[in-house]
Design brief:
The chain is α+β, with helices and mostly antiparallel strands and about 200 residues long. It has 2 domains: about 30 residues; about 170 residues, Crystallins (Gamma-B Crystallin, domain 1, Sandwich). Helix content is about 25%, strand content about 30%.
């Protein structure tokens, strides 16, 4: 009987460990809160003192930032990068003007306490080669971004990966074959991938 009791105890313990692991994974992948999830899925942004819907038109903007505290667009990439460095909650301006978020901390916004899940610097996608043309920056982690929501699907011709690894995917969820590790850059896309990326995920 003792071997059977020991086996039953082992099986029960393994089941508890599996359940705990699944719960932890689900919590890690879940949105931080409903408000943050809503902001990240929104195509609405501020630009030149007005509200624009990026899914419809950028209305003259050339650089946008998609963040978990709101989306904003600007006339130049330099203005956008300064905004990311100066306006990101809980951040300090870094040498290149990118986000310097304190990961794993919380910062009080107008809506209350919101967990920061932003990477220390953003992924930037450009519609021209050699980091030219219109561009959009993302920094929120563990979110699958549909670039069509920002009128940027099938437009990427060059990119710069920030402080966290990322994946670029096409409409069939095929993964971009070039390096997208933290700090990677590409002045042009791998063969067959220019104007093909439709989704982005930051780890």
């Amino acid at each position: 009987m003792r071997p059977l009791i020991a086996l039953a105890a082992f099986v029960a313990g393994a089941a508890l460990v599996l359940a705990a692991t699944q719960t932890a994974f689900a919590l890690r992948m879940a949105p931080e809160d409903n408000a943050t999830s809503s902001r990240l899925s929104s195509s609405v942004a501020t630009y030149a003192g007005r509200t624009v819907d990026l899914a419809v038109s950028w209305e003259g903007a050339t650089a946008c930032a998609i963040t978990d505290w709101g989306n904003a667009c600007f006339d130049t990439a330099a203005e956008r990068d300064a905004y990311l460095g100066l306006s990101a909650p809980g951040t300090a301006t870094s040498k290149d003007g990118t986000i310097g978020a304190l990961e794993g901390t919380t910062t009080r916004l107008s809506g209350g306490i919101v967990p920061l899940v932003a990477c220390a610097s953003s992924v930037r996608l450009y519609d021209g080669t050699s980091f030219t043309g219109t561009s959009v920056a993302f920094s929120s982690r563990n979110v699958l971004f549909n670039l069509a929501s920002y009128s940027f699907a099938a437009k990427t011709s060059s990119f710069s990966i920030g402080g966290c690894s990322a994946q670029l995917l096409d409409s069939a969820s095929a993964i971009y074959p070039g390096s997208t590790s933290a700090g990677a850059t590409a002045a042009s896309m791998s063969s067959g991938w220019s104007n093909r990326v439709t989704q982005l995920y930051i780890f």
